[in-house]
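anyone seen this seq b4? input:
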Amino acid sequence: MTGIFYGSTTGNTESYAQTIAQALGTNDVFNVADATADSVLQYDLILLGSSTWGDGDLQDDWYDFLEALKGLDLSGKKVALFGTGDSGSYPDTFCGALATIYDELQGTGATFVGSFAPEGYDVTDSAINRDGNFIGLALDDNNSDNEARIATWVQTL
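predicted toks r here
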């Protein structure tokens, strides 16, 4: 089973969470502001989405959820990350919230899936770029074809 958990301030990440859910055929989509971290435990594949703010910061609703999430045993769970940012104006912190989630969950036993080639982006300095790939699906409303990226990404999951 797949569960999608997102934090969204302006509605963009929420909209993408719904698009991804439709592509994956799941209705299990939750705003982290209204969910408990232990609710992820019922899923085999957990998608975590956040917009990025300020200097690569998490969306506000993520802080408490992430703190609780990193205390869970996610062994045997697959985790995929997706998020929104602005690669043109903020290339050095583009989708930096995903890097925060990724780094904070390293001790949980989760297996991360869904790395994505940064084709079409000029971003090379952002923390989401690890070993030549993005650690998850990075979406940019201003500079990219997100529908095609989503379609390609969900096939890798």
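The chain has a mean pLDDT of 93. DSSP finds four helices and nine strands in the chain. kinda curious what u guys think
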